[in-house]
Each structure stands twice: as structure tokens, then as C-alpha cells.
Write a structure and sequence with these properties.
This protein has about 70 residues and is an all-alpha fold. It is about 85% helix and about 0% strand. The longest helix has about 50 residues.
């Protein structure tokens, strides 16, 4: 039994489970941050475009009503 434990604890061609878990956690954190930034940018761009179109429509309406 102790031989099997020694073999499991050696990682000549890889990393330990705890190192893998730590690396995976870092990757998950990075992906979460990237996702948050992307969502924020998309929401901001949607808001900007909405306001532009709303202003253009208001301008067109005011121009149309002044001609009539």
C-alpha cells in the first residue's frame, strides 16, 4: 500500500491535483472577468446606439412637424 501512495505522489510527467485545481480556478476567474467586461461593453454600446437613434428620431419628428 505504501508503494502505491509513493507512486501516486510523484508527478514526473504532470502536476499534482492541487496545482491543477489552483490553475483551473485562476482560469475560471479570468474567464469570469472577461465575461463581465464584455457584457459591460455590449450593454454600453447598446445604450449609446439606442440614444443616438432616439435623438435622430426626435430630430426628424421636429423637422417634419416644423414643415407641416
Amino acid at each position: 500500500m505504501s508503494i502505491a501512495i509513493k507512486e501516486v505522489q510523484h508527478f514526473p510527467n504532470g502536476i499534482s491535483k492541487s496545482e491543477f485545481e489552483a490553475s483551473l480556478q485562476k482560469l475560471q476567474d479570468q474567464v469570469r472577468i472577461i465575461d463581465q467586461k464584455l457584457v459591460t461593453k455590449v450593454e454600453r454600446e447598446i445604450t449609446v446606439q439606442y440614444k443616438k437613434q432616439k435623438n435622430e428620431l426626435a430630430l426628424i419628428r421636429s423637422f417634419s412637424s416644423s414643415k407641416a
